[in-house]
Amino acid sequence: MIISTERGKRPSEFIVAPPPVKAGFCPFCHGSEGTTPPEIMAYRTTDSKPNTEGWHIRVVPNKYPALKIEGDIGKAGEGLYDKMNGVGAHEVIIESPNHKDTLSTISVKQFEEVLWAYRDRIVDLKRDVRLRYALIFKNHGEAAGASLEHSHSQLIALPIVPKRVAEELDGSLEYFSYKERCVFCDIVRQEIMQGIRVVTENQDFLAVTPYAPKAPFEVWILPKFHESNFENSQKHHYENLASLFSDVLKRMDKVLNLPAYNFILHTAPIRNGVSLQHYHWHFEIMPKLTKIAGFEWGSGFYITPTSPEEAASFLREAKI
Questions:
Q1: What is the tally of structural domains in the chain?
Q2: What are 111-143's pLDDT values in tens digits?
Q3: The model's pTM
Q4: Which of 7, 21, 203, 314 has the least CB density, counted as fewest CB within 10 Å?
């Protein structure tokens, strides 16, 4: 990572495109349930039937899936290459029936239910022995890759562990083998002790700008307790995570003027069965304030025009 102090930018110096105002039909709004694939799961406040109104969280298959649940993996070689069938799952978590809601405007209780939906879908997909990893992510805003304006997250379950995840697992295992401590637990301890990159915290969670950010105003949310698998957390953990996560997104909206962003849940592979001593689940949130261009693609470096310490200070001092 390159922290370019010569390019140092305050929040107001980032040009953030206003979210587009789109009119017309939305398949994720209440009343449009018949236009999506049949729901996989829904949390309902009434005795309403599946695929009808009365829900507040709804999970449906992606209409244009990257991977499909049907079929065999069919792994095979083709000369020096390897290939397999596109087996997996691609689901959409619709976070509210109301079109104008976002994760920063819904109630903390509603946010908590979104987290429970993530957890419940991972637990269900763990039963499929073909699947190795469940990747949960959110693209918020057109600049972050969202194709629909209505607030939603996605889950893609894969038959392999992704390369970036494998590298993170291997790196944390190497650290554990050398120091007999979890690197993420050490990050939590050091960031609390230093305080300069802390955005906010509560009893169970810490939000920090990482020491080497990939994007300006990037924020990590880390549990203060050790757990490698997101789905193994307890009820009060999800309550406190929802409260802190909502707080962080509100701060970003205030400081960065409603930015587009991506977030990703980093969690252990779903077939481990037991908690890993060397790994620690966490969320990474990346506002879309800069563009990835030739230098980044060619070198693997990321240039950040705002230091993480300055970013943390702006977010920490935001009046929300």
A1: 1
A2: 999 999 999 999 999 999 999 999 999 999 988
A3: 0.93
A4: 21
